[in-house]
# Entry
Amino acid sequence: MAALDVCGEWLISTCDKKLIAVHTKQSREPFVFDCSTAEAKPKCTESDKSDVGGSEETSSDRILAVAVSTSGKRVALTDDTKRLVLFQCEPSWQVISTRWVVRRGTSLVFTKDENEVWMADKSGDVYSFSVVEPQKTGDLKLGHLSMLLSMTLTPDSKYVITADRDEKIRVSHLKSPYNIQAFCLGHLEFVSSLLVPPGHPHWLLSGSGDGTVKLWEYESGRRVQTWDLKQLRDMPNSENEKKSAVSRIAGSPCGRHVAVQCERLPSVQLFAVDQEGEAHLVPSSRLTLSHCPLDLTFDPEGRLWVLLDSREMPFLMYTHTGGSWTPNSVSPELKRVTEALRPHWDALQISAGLESRFQHLYKVSFDNMASYRQKKQERLQQQNEHWDKKRGPGNVQQSNGASKKAKGDKPVAQASK
# Structure
């Protein structure tokens, strides 16, 4: 998975099996962590195997999710080998711990006090892992009946919000997750992205495989707005457009801008927060790109960074000036980050070349009536053939002759009258 995030003055990108952190302000050596050379899992005993479901699974060491703490001092990642790796960023990068999880993770998030990191997994469960006790195993907090795809915590640390493959968004109490505050229902496909935007602690933005972005008041579950991104792009509802899932929603630190990225589309949709009356979002501009974006994020200065599927220009930086977003191609930070990433481009290309990570999540529809009619026709044909064989050719011919004779006698009888 190719991902982009900001950790203080470090810009973090993940490329297949590697996490690469580049300091944007100083010419410091980039930090590179390669999961393929990381600590290996100890050999399981027979009892351990039974706990995780039997035989050992093959894995690729590919990074599946990354999270950055609020202060920018901690980073966590989880990979396809079921590692959970915790890093310290300041004053220097180092691995704090490597733990092993039961199922592959899909989403990570730090609590506000940074004492815990929560992980959602593919089986629908959420575990919390201690940061203070970095070797402690995880505690099960809550579960869905479907695969979890995204998770976030509210700024007041009151709720944990989880989204799954079955279009559900659940708002649960953080201290007692078995208590459900609300559901946010309305998406027609899996929910792929969640964000409580900076500056708006009572809002929730959600993106889905149905190609829409929705704004909620999550505590009540009330839907405030819905934006169909296909209509904003003036695109027809073709089959390809239906498969353009929202892959990332990011908010600027000032709370005035939101950027939305759809998978495998060479554009970024930007929204602005309108404070008149009841605050809401309005489409502000759309950035047309030369290549498809792999991920995007805002830095502390409010600049928008976009990671592209392009060897020549892997990064773009946009600055909001004069009411519009303009590219900043001469930024020293952009140059520093681009040069640091180039040696690892092969790994980034592997991430970019992977199949859609959402393709297998779409609903599959079946025409049951067509299949039923075909089987019924075949069954009737078999019955007719069976009775024809049972009567035999002579009986069929005699029956046909008698029928013709009866039909021929009828007009004569009428004529005699």
